[in-house]
Amino acid sequence: MQPSKPEPEKKTKCACGRRLRDASVYIYRSHGDRYLFHRCECGVEWTVHQNDVDPLQPVSSDEVIEVHKRLAKFEGSIAELLEQPQHPA
Ligand SMILES: [Zn+2]
């Protein structure tokens, strides 16, 4: 019996047992929506749709470049980056 968790929709592992943070993640942004394409080493692919981007805060291409630059140095996945606390508005 596992106690109910506060974040039931948040998975930490793929069905194959690999950690989601080990999956390849690609980000696609469109009109304030954010899509996270994941691909596990086992071949499983899934997409996470997020629309928590503030529409009043346009995302510039510079920000996208910055993300890629960070990813180049970051050893985890971007999903892990996104789990970090957001700065207060
Ligand atoms: Zn997998």
Note down, in words, how this protein is organized.
- The protein is α+β, with helices and mostly antiparallel strands and about 90 residues long.
- It has a domain at about 20-75.
- The protein is about 20% helix and about 20% strand.
- The chain has two helices and three strands; from the N terminus they run βββαα.
- The protein has a three-stranded antiparallel sheet with strand order 1-2-3, with no helix packed on it.
- The longest helix has 13 residues, at about 60-75.
- It starts with about 25 loop residues before the first strand and ends in a 7-residue tail after the last helix.
- The model has no long low-confidence stretch (mean pLDDT about 75).
- The site of zinc ion (ZN) has 6 residues, from loops.
